[in-house]
Amino acid sequence: MRIADVDVAAAARLPADPSRSAMLALLLDGRAHPAGALAQAAGIGRPAASAHLKQLVGAGYLEVVRQGRPRYCRIARPEVATALESLAAIAPSLPVRSLRQSSAARLRATARTCYDHLAGPAGVLLHDALRDHGQVAEDAVTPTGVSCFDALGIDVDRLRRGRRPLLKTCLDWTERRPHLAGALPAALLVAFTDRGWTVRRTGLDGAPNGRQVEIDPAGWEQLRDWLGCSAGCHRR
User: Fold this and answer.
1) Where is the HTH arsR-type domain (predicted)?
2) Residues 6+ apart with CB under 8 A from 184
């Protein structure tokens, strides 16, 4: 499909609004959030937030999740998150207005999530290492990769049968270089977290809270050992 055959302006119109952009940015942590939290993130009232959310749901950017009477919104499909991350890669930076914002940006700069997969310098390192060591080639998993991922309990054949693309590149908005997206990178982040190699901050409900991913020195060593590049992969 050519860009000339689709209405790019229509797709970009909704995220172009600052309030909707702020709500979408919060939803990039992969969670479902209530309207009140999204209104707070955008700095607007509940009625205005509800109007914005109605437009985003109607356009297929978001979907509504019900848990009893409460209603939550979340990103409807991974392609929406990929598009937002790509827009961020060419967008100007906002001014840092507080020490809290500065600290949060510094922590996210090392490793963070892009929807449900690893991003930031750690995500780019993973992309490069998997390609350099032959686990993936282009947007495909090699036989070596199948064995490597199986060691983490990841069934590549099962992921291939799913509706979501197994593997694709996503332009990282801080690094201006690609990290990996798709069903496999999402499964990898779960596997890394289950083993304690990466740590995601959680709320009182135990669910991930925000996009920050922490990797301590021991976690880096475990990741490099698994990748088979202990001597060649370095933290930034």
Assistant:
1) 10-89
2) 141, 149, 154, 156, 159, 166, 167
